[in-house]
Design brief:
32% of the residues lie in helices and 17% in strands. The strands form 7 sheets. The chain has a 6-stranded mixed beta sheet, with helices on one face. Strands 1-2-3-5-8 form a 5-stranded parallel beta sheet. A 5-stranded mixed beta sheet has the order 19-27-26-21-22, with no helix packed on it. It has 26 helices and 27 strands. It starts with 5 loop residues before the first helix and ends in a 5-residue tail after the last helix. By secondary structure, it is α/β, with parallel strands linked by helices. It is globular. The structure holds beta-D-glucopyranose. The site of beta-D-glucopyranose has 9 residues, from strand 3.
Length: 819
């Protein structure tokens, strides 16, 4: 196949659009089916397929859904983003991207729906397992590498969920209230990095509102910023059912409504063009972008392509090895030696928790458990379940006693524990950071009979670790994908050496988290009062103790840092500063170290975190070997977003450049004089207005209403629904649950889902469905109801909820679809 240059696809698309009827152009505004774009066969435009993502393919051959319910064809489940981000390894992410693209090629999929680069604002977000980091540079770099890997084979990506979608609770309607500086520096930054460096074929806009406007209607978010400022050339699709007002959306820059509203919204677009309320030029631009996407996708579809499933499994294992973080390792208990008398405890060792629930749920080509892998490495060991794998939150005395009996007297005990499936999913958030009592008690009781305990954690997000001082070693696999067991076995036995670092802080207690008082917000909005102080940016600046800091991770070998130097002692705007040091492997095993570069400005006149990650590099070293590591800084490394000026600004000053093995383990430090741009003068009075952001007082981060309002720059919207305000199509079933209409609709939906899925629903799926139904805005009925539901019928339901019974029934009756 001969590929054309990007501009040629665009030129060809422009020619096709010139030949399209208005109806054809409008038809491109939404999908043809759940996973396919609209075709225009007469012009040679095929119905290309897009599908989830992000860490492998979820292509459904039969019944479709976005909940991860119906089966999909087998594909490789690579480590999830929560894990792979800990590798800090852009080459690895690129390689995984290539492998995912190969699977897309075989399955004739044109765009994979990922990566998800939302920031981990709060550890309870149910979908954190699908996201990379609390740090925008790391999230952006991991996403960038994955996108470039996938797109190197001419398969598209959809970077999601754009933007400020940092919780699952009421995700479809919540208004994320975020000050512009936090938006720019934290929440938009990963997208900006990826767009500028990798030109993803598509972005996926999120369900929520961003500062009062649904992402799908938000021209500032969809056009002004990505296209106007960052140079984004691709197209933007909605998340599934995330389209609010389609006509406003077309003008805002939302190219594709997915999956579709059965032609209803396309007709509204047509009418709006006819009535002159929507410029035909907006529709032409949309059609050009979609046609460009289809044309380039069609060229990449090759018949008969096959990938090597075994090689992909091996890559998944390598990636899991590179992604598992060794949190502690007292007395060098790890690696274990095959001569030791070992006990392996915990049902996760036999049946691993290796992926999350929801739209990213993959049907893996195989699953490798730790027990199976340890056996195949020739290790002899005793095994006990310790807890029930399914519905096993309550401790089982018999299983614990059995585990203790096995553990007593052994040279070492490895306990596999973590969070079972029903604890984390797309669709709802966790309620606390607890592990199941059955896992906690097992660890504590076994640790009481044996001093040499290793805990291997399989989970999608941090938990509180009340037992951490009672065990010697902790290895976190996160959700390591289908080969997690093989990776764990290799790491435990020292066939692989841990090298990953935490991509998020593990707080001591949930209450320490900067957003803990402001998550998940009210029924209407969630206020990001902590502003830029997300994750380590807060813990480090407020000198708050944590269980394990961002960037932390041990190895079986040691590294020393020396000879910090920079190529200039003064940084001039627009320039580059190369910072280097020597890293030496001072231990006895080959290993890799992630060198992290942080920048801070101690006496800044704007509030800012004490240090921020500005570059990193991973270096592999043989025992005794040393290498030069050079990292580059540019304007952005020193800048903050100056809201009043609407631009990035650099404050003049003497900045600290710090190189370290974690955010809390700085090994080398130097000062660099940086030229400013004089903009800071306009910031006088900031301290008086926003004192808490400068001082970060002790205790949970509490920002007074007035102060956050001053930061936000306009009155805060009510966070709860004001009683008595009428319901509308964006009211959720939860909002109207006490009305007759609410009870009727919720009952009907639950019956339908039950009928579709039968009784064998697992707890995670049941909880996801329940949350999805409760938080569903009424307008989503248009997507779910297929041809059977019209806008007038939904208006009728709103009338019913508002107590306008006659009008409601009339609208529902009159709105019935014409036969
Ligand atoms: C999720 C997206 C996903 C889409 C399609 C939505 O519910 O938020 O991440 O790509 O469904 O499955």
């Amino acid at each position: 196949m001969v590929y054309m240059a990007d501009t040629d696809y665009r030129d060809k698309a422009l020619r096709l659009v010139a030949e399209m009827t208005l109806e054809e152009k409008a038809s491109l505004c939404s999908g043809q089916s759940f996973w396919n774009l609209q075709a225009i066969e007469r012009l040679g435009l095929k119905p290309i397929m897009v599908t989830d993502g992000p860490h492998g393919l979820r292509k459904q051959a039969g019944a479709t859904d976005q909940l991860g319910l119906n089966e999909s064809i087998p594909s490789t489940c690579f480590p999830l983003a929560c894990a792979s981000a800990c590798s800090f390894d852009v080459d690895l992410l690129h390689e995984v991207g290539v492998a995912i693209a190969e699977e897309c090629r075989q399955e004739q999929v044109s765009v994979v729906l990922g990566p998800g680069v939302n920031i981990k604002r709060n550890p309870l977000c149910g979908r954190n397992f699908e996201y990379f980091s609390e740090d925008p540079l790391l999230a952006g770099e991991m996403g960038r590498a994955l996108v470039q890997g996938v797109q190197s084979l001419d398969i598209g990506t959809s970077v999601k969920h754009y933007a400020a979608n940092n919780q699952e609770t009421r995700r479809t309607v919540i208004d994320s209230v975020v000050d512009i500086r936090a938006l720019r520096e934290i929440y938009l930054a990963p997208y900006e990095r990826i767009v500028k460096a990798a030109q993803p074929w598509t972005l996926m806009c999120s369900y929520n509102k961003v500062n009062g406007t649904f992402a799908s209607d938000n021209r500032w978010l969809l056009t002004d910023v990505p296209r106007g400022e960052w140079g984004f050339e691709g197209s933007i699709m909605s998340d599934w059912g995330a389209t609010d007002d389609r006509v406003i959306g077309v003008h805002a820059g939302l190219d594709l409504e997915m999956p579709s509203s059965n032609g209803m919204n396309d007709r509204l677009v047509l009418e709006a063009v006819g009535a002159g309320t929507l410029a035909e030029e907006d529709l032409d631009q949309l059609a050009t972008r979609i046609a460009t996407l289809i044309l380039r996708s069609m060229d990449a579809l090759v018949e008969g392509y096959t990938y090597d499933a075994q090689a992909h499994h091996a890559l998944a294992r390598k990636a899991a090895e590179q992604s598992s973080v060794l949190l502690k390792n007292e007395d060098r208990l790890l690696p274990l030696s095959p001569d030791q008398d070992i006990a392996v405890i915990g049902a996760f060792a036999k049946q691993p928790r290796y992926q999350g629930a929801g739209s990213s749920k993959i049907n893996p080509t195989r699953i490798e458990s730790a027990v199976e892998a340890l056996e195949s490495l020739g290790l002899g060991f005793g095994y006990a379940d310790g807890y029930h794998r399914e519905k096993g939150a309550d401790p089982d005395e018999t299983l614990i006693a059995e585990a203790c009996a096995l553990a007593a007297g052994k040279d070492a005990v490895v306990i596999f524990a973590g969070l079972p499936e029903e604890y984390e999913s797309e669709g709802f958030d966790r309620l606390n950071m607890d592990m199941p009592a059955s896992h906690v008690q097992l660890i504590e009781r076994v640790a009481a009979v044996n001093p040499n305990v290793v805990v291997v954690l399989q989970l999608g997000a941090p938990v509180e670790l009340p037992w951490r001082d009672k065990v010697k070693s902790i290895l976190v696999s996160y959700l390591g994908g289908q080969a997690v067991g093989g990776a764990e076995a290799n790491l435990l036995l020292g066939h692989a050496v841990p090298c990953a670092k935490l991509a998020e802080t593990w707080p001591l207690f949930y209450e320490d988290t900067p957003s803990s008082l402001y998550f998940p917000g009210g029924s209407k909005s969630v206020e990001y009062r902590e502003s830029v102080f997300v994750g380590y940016r807060y813990f480090d600046s407020a000198s708050r103790q944590v269980a394990y800091p961002f960037g932390h991770g041990l190895s079986y070998t040691e590294f020393s840092y020396s000879d910090l130097h920079a190529d200039k002692d003064r940084f001039e705007r627009g320039g580059r500063l190369a910072v280097g040091c020597t890293v030496e492997n001072t231990g006895t095993l080959a290993g890799s170290e992630v060198v992290q570069l942080y920048v801070g400005l101690p006496d800044s006149s704007v509030y800012r975190p004490r240090k921020e990650l500005r570059a990193f590099a991973k270096v592999e070293l043989q025992p005794g070997e040393s290498k030069q590591v050079t990292l580059e800084l540019d304007d952005r490394s020193f800048a903050y977003y100056h809201e009043a000026e609407g631009t990035w600004a650099i404050e003049e000053g003497c900045y600290e450049v710090m190189l370290g093995a974690s955010s809390a383990d700085i090994r080398l430090k130097m000062q660099v004089q940086v030229d400013g741009d004089g903009k800071e003068q306009t910031l006088a009075g900031l301290f008086e207005k926003l004192p808490h952001y400068f001082t970060l007082p002790d205790g949970p981060l509490e920002i007074p209403d007035k102060e956050f309002e001053a930061l936000y720059g306009r009155p805060l919207p009510p966070s709860e629904r004001v009683p008595g305000t009428p319901f509308d199509i964006n009211s959720t079933l939860n909002d109207i649950k006490d009305t007759k209409a609410g009870k009727l609709i919720a009952g009907q939906l639950k019956r339908q889902t039950q009928a579709m899925l039968g009784d064998g629903m697992s707890d995670d799926v049941a909880a996801f469905i329940d949350a999805s139904i409760n938080d569903m805005p009424l307008r989503s009925m248009l997507m779910l109801g297929g041809e059977g539901i019209t806008r007038q019928m939904v208006d009728g339901m709103v009338d019913l909820a508002n107590g306008k019974t006659l009008r409601g029934y009339f609208n529902i009756w009159r709105g019935r679809p014409k036969k």
